[in-house]
Design brief:
By secondary structure, the chain is α/β, with parallel strands linked by helices. About 40% of the residues lie in helices and about 15% in strands. The chain contains 14 helices and 14 strands. Strands 2-10-9-8-7-3-4 form a 7-stranded mixed beta sheet, sandwiched between helices.
Length: about 400
């Protein structure tokens, strides 16, 4: 039969992001495209021990659970972990989700109507753009610099478009890796509060903070949620994930905010999947609370290794093939956002690179408009040898492409 899909469903069928992810799942292809952590750094022995303990101790681990998520894990999250970040969530103000992407999806379902204006950093996360397009939002790109969003441009956009929401990643924006300054955070928050614009703050990369200047420790700034410090009726929804720091397959993220907002998202979640995996949440809680695993020490390990891989990628970008490209070294996150040499198109380069056996994310997938002169490179997933090989193959593709041009 001929299936009559909704108009918005076609944004999924035509997704170039889905096509790239499908290709990277095939064996033999080196992927610098996805936001994946290093598999060899997963705490495998402790996870294996935890799985055996949790399943054998209580058959309830395999039962349905609360839609809001496993209570002890929510308590652990809202306790020392979030409080150490200056985040205090109200009772009933935390929802565990299937990764941070589901938090974004649930929020757009309950908050965005077709035609609503939504502000985003440009460039921004491909997942955010997909979720907004699926809901029929009108996406308004915002300009920024190395300090974060430009307040004057934000002010003009708010007055012109009267947006309902702002999506932002102040700590290591995907894909540019920008860390907003404290002053810029305060200015953006003040503007959004003054005009009643909801801020969705994605802090999924905030712990991956490793770059140091002149031997000085990295600076950690408070989140927008912590800066507002309002438990009810606040203007910030704070979301994050354990996928980048523990293991993606545990599929555990969270959203923290006012009870009214979280309650509506929880109702939508019951329609979507009733609950995220109770077993995964119990495994994660046991790992964090009852084993020798120390999440802060583990993150420090990740940051040391990721810093090394970032420096390796930066060195490889000094080779002749990349001499007319440019980038800013990020202070954290998972990506390098590279400006291509003049005349080199990101989508065309991707085709040539795939033939060589390496993938990256082309700039148009991270941009509301344009972006064909940029590419996003992930340095956290490939091991050092694989990263070296992948960058060599990309250099070959760039050299051959520019020679033909």
């Amino acid at each position: 039969m001929k299936y009559e899909f909704s108009a918005r469903a076609h944004t999924l069928a035509s997704s170039q992001l889905l096509s790239i992810r499908t290709k990277t799942r095939r064996g033999g292809l080196i992927s610098l495209a996805e936001e994946l952590p290093a598999e060899e750094l997963f705490p495998l022995p402790l996870l294996a021990e935890t799985a055996s303990t949790v399943i054998s101790a209580d058959s309830g681990a395999l039962q349905y659970g609360d839609p809001e998520g496993y209570g002890p894990l929510r308590d652990w999250l809202t306790g020392d972990w979030l409080k150490s970040k200056g985040v205090t969530a109200p009772e009933g103000g935390v929802l565990l989700t299937t990764g941070s992407q589901q938090a974004i999806d649930l929020l757009t379902r309950v908050y965005i109507d077709p035609g609503d204006r939504v502000l985003v950093e440009n460039p921004t996360s491909p997942g955010i753009l997909q979720a907004l397009r699926m809901q029929g939002a009108v996406i308004i790109p915002l300009k920024g610099d190395r300090e974060g969003l430009l307040p004057d441009h934000l002010r003009t956009a708010i007055r012109q478009h009267r947006p309902k929401m702002l999506f932002a990643t102040p700590s290591f924006t995907n894909p540019s890796g920008i860390l907003w300054s404290l002053a810029r955070r305060k200015e953006v928050l003040e503007l959004c509060v003054g005009h009643h614009v909801l801020i969705v703050e994605d802090d999924s990369y905030g712990d991956l903070h490793f770059h140091r200047h002149s031997g000085q420790p990295s600076v950690h700034y408070p989140s927008l949620y912590a800066l507002e410090n309002v438990s009810e009726g606040g203007h910030v929804l704070y979301i994050g994930s354990f996928s980048k720091t523990v293991a993606p397959a545990l599929r555990t993220g969270w959203a923290a905010g006012s009870r009214e907002l979280i309650g509506m998202m929880a109702a939508a979640k019951q329609m979507a999947d009733w609950q995220s995996s109770s077993l995964n949440q119990r495994l994660l809680h046991h790992l964090l609370d009852a084993t020798a695993f120390d999440l802060r020490e583990h993150i420090a390990l990740l940051n040391r290794e990721y810093n090394t891989r970032l420096k390796l990628m930066a060195e490889l970008l000094k080779r002749p093939a990349w001499k007319h490209s440019s980038y800013e070294m990020p202070e954290g996150g998972m990506f390098l956002w590279v400006s291509l040499p003049e005349g080199l198109d990101a989508m065309a380069l991707l085709k040539a690179s795939l033939l060589k056996g390496v993938a990256f994310l082309p700039g148009p997938l991270c941009s509301v408009h344009g972006g064909s002169d940029h590419i996003r490179l992930n340095f956290t997933h490939p091991g050092r040898d694989e990263l070296l090989l992948g960058m060599n193959l990309m250099s070959e593709a760039v050299t051959e492409f520019t020679a033909r041009s």
